[in-house]
Amino acid sequence: MFKYFEPNKIFSITSKAPKYVLFLFIIILTVGLIEALILSPEDYKQSHSVRIMYVHVPAAWICLGIFSMITFLSVIGYVFKIRNFFLISKSLAPSGFVFSVIALVTGSIWGKPTWGTWWAWDARITSMLILSLFYFIYLIAWRIYDNDDKAFKITTIITVAGIINVPIIKYSVDWWNTLHQQASINILSKSSIHVSMLYPLLIMTAAFTLFSLLIFLMKYNTELIKIKNKGLDRL
Amino acid sequence: MYGRKVKLRFFFVFFILIILSLSIFLILKSLEENVVYFKSPTEIKILSEVNKNKIRIGGMVKENSILIEEKKLRFIVTDFKNEINVVYSGVIPNLFAEGKGVVAEGFLKDRSFFSATKILAKHDENYMPPEVKKALEEK
């Protein structure tokens, strides 16, 4: 059924959406930044450097989430030959890549005042770097093979190989001794982060999600325009 | 229900996933020694031989164990089962304190004495404002 989405119909929605998303993003980012940088308390041990967390953690979550989505869409798209899913994956990837780099850079900046080092080759940090490289290869693959069956196959294989790394990133801190601390937020048990610090974290996550959505919509619109220009009336 | 091509593509992806997962699992399993960032004092205790290579040890800084001598810092790393004496001179990170996590890089002299060349602070997953910490301690 997804095969027969008409690009014109999708485009009429996705071309109007960005301005509303941008509006919402600016509001939530403003609230999130005020909460994170001014209203939230300092940490008992790290004092103000804890504020880096409000950028670092959401960025890491989102780049993991986007990679999982890309893999899911690519595999379904590859097995059932749904072209549209590949366009969605392709449009999601850039923001995922940017957030993986942001997570690494802010982690490095955070590591210096707390751990005493910019970089450590521990399991969490190394696996995160590998994810970043997978994003990079994925984007390069789209550059080399432009929207044809070969590109679909190759990008699917890249995502399937990369998805193995995602649970490794998640559980690296539990499986091995790492310099990186364990997860503070657990869905099933009580979080070890105080409520006053949890709220800004969640608001910032919402803001970053909206940012990804915004970039996605812009990229996706470009892809749809490309298809329209080719004169294809369906995806 | 689905065509032969669809099934073939499904199994193609499925086998790639299985084979890659298995090989990565085996690689990580065989490299476990190197994947861990540091060894605990207990793991050092059961080490078969003490070699001259640079290693990292980690654990908690034992309470009341930090001793500052002339240009030298002595402390004890513990995992609450075994302990290692560490001697170090150099820069210490801000979060280095008694009762907190630490990772020390350096050379093992014997199974209970370690000469560190670099010290990193390892902090835990707890985040809270100072007032809350105070209230918790008073309880």
Strand and helix layout:
The complex is a heterodimer of chains A (235) and B (139).
Chain A: H1 7-14, H2 17-39, H3 53-80, H4 83-114, H5 123-144, H6 149-163, H7 165-175, H8 195-229
Helix pairs in contact in A: 1-8, 2-8, 3-4, 3-6, 3-8, 4-5, 4-8, 5-6, 5-7
Chain B: H1 4-30, H2 32-35, H3 41-45, E1 55-61, E2 67-69, E3 72-78, E4 83-88, E5 101-110, E6 113-122, H4 130-138
Parallel strand pairs in B: 4-6
Antiparallel strand pairs in B: 1-3, 1-5, 2-3, 3-4, 5-6
- Helix percent of chain A reads over 70%
Determine the oligomeric state from the structure.
heterodimer
Distance between the termini of chain B: 65 Å
Biggest sheet features of chain B: 5 strands, mixed, barrel
For the termini of chain A, the CA-CA separation is 11 Å
Largest beta sheet: strand ordering of chain B: 1-3-4-6-5
Q: What is the succession of H and E elements of chain B? A: HHHEEEEEEH
What is the N-to-C succession of helices and strands of chain A?
HHHHHHHH
Specify the overall morphology of chain B.
elongated
Helices of chain B, by number, come to 4
Q: What share of residues are in beta strands of chain B?
A: 25-35%
